[in-house]
Amino acid sequence: MPEIRRVAILDDHQHAAHRYAAWHSLPEGARLTFFHEHLGGPEEVIAALEPFDVVVAMRERTPFPAEVLDRLPQLRLLVTTGPANAAIDMAAAARRGIVVSGTRAAGLTSTAELTWGLLHALTRSLPAEERHLRDGGWQRTVGRDLHGARLGVVGLGGVGSRVARVGLAFGMDVVAWSAHLDPGHATALGVTPVGKRELLTTSDVVTLHVRLSPRTVGLIGTEELALMRPDALLINTSRAPVVDEKALLTALHTGTLGGAALDVHYTEPLSADSPWHNAPRTVLTPHLGYVTDGAYEIFYRDALDDILAHAAGEPVRVLTP
Length: 321
What we know:
The protein is α/β, with parallel strands linked by helices. The protein has two domains: about 120 residues, Rossmann fold; about 180 residues, Rossmann fold (3-Layer(aba) Sandwich). The strands form two sheets. A seven-stranded parallel sheet has the order 8-7-6-9-10-11-12, sandwiched between helices. The chain has a five-stranded parallel sheet with strand order 2-1-3-4-5, with helices on both faces. β10, α10 and β11 form a beta-alpha-beta unit. α4 packs across α6. The longest helix has 19 residues. The protein is globular and about 60 Å long. The model has no long low-confidence stretch (mean pLDDT about 95).
């Protein structure tokens, strides 16, 4: 049976991972290391993880392309939180004989909840008003009503459907589009299925809830942003590459888009010189969609189960190319 010697838990920014699983149940002699800071680029990842035979990755925060996997000679098990990870080169892992295991899905509800937090923050200027109040000021902005406004949901899956239901509860006119939208599912929710162009041109708020794939990279680019109303708002709690970053920054700086709220970013954590630090009419959060007690309990407990199963010679939740 495989021997477990050194286990790495990555991207534990909140120093919280130790609380969510019984790590003391790891095989005797196994050494556990929590990495509380992002490791950085490929060379930094290789240098830090070269001695480890088990690595637990937090979603797609740390990529594992072939160039990294080929230079981690000790690695035998790579666990990703969640049931899939687009940042792992699965073919390279298989070629190297590295087992890749996932966990159960988590964060659908919490991401939908955060979407509404971002939407309210943007429509009512909550971050700016809170800062003004603490500085001794009072009301400076005029908010926007949601009742009667149109909410355009791009992607009506697990998260998108939850967001749509809340929009309906607020009295919004909710429409949806995706490349493979099921009109029957939309209608059953009380949502109107529409074409992509109609959603973009008529929605007061557009919120994105699609999976990252070659088909969805750049789904919202210069052309799509130009279709949106100049007072429209864009919410992205999906994946950063779904939106063309440069095109969005241009739209915000030129005033052709009303605002954007983003929980996902091309580079995470944001670099000190990121242009987003000075982007106008934005609300930014550090990828908090899945960062809740409930999600972490699933992620880390399942990750520990994956490690113990691997140590017993019976790996579970194995992902394949």
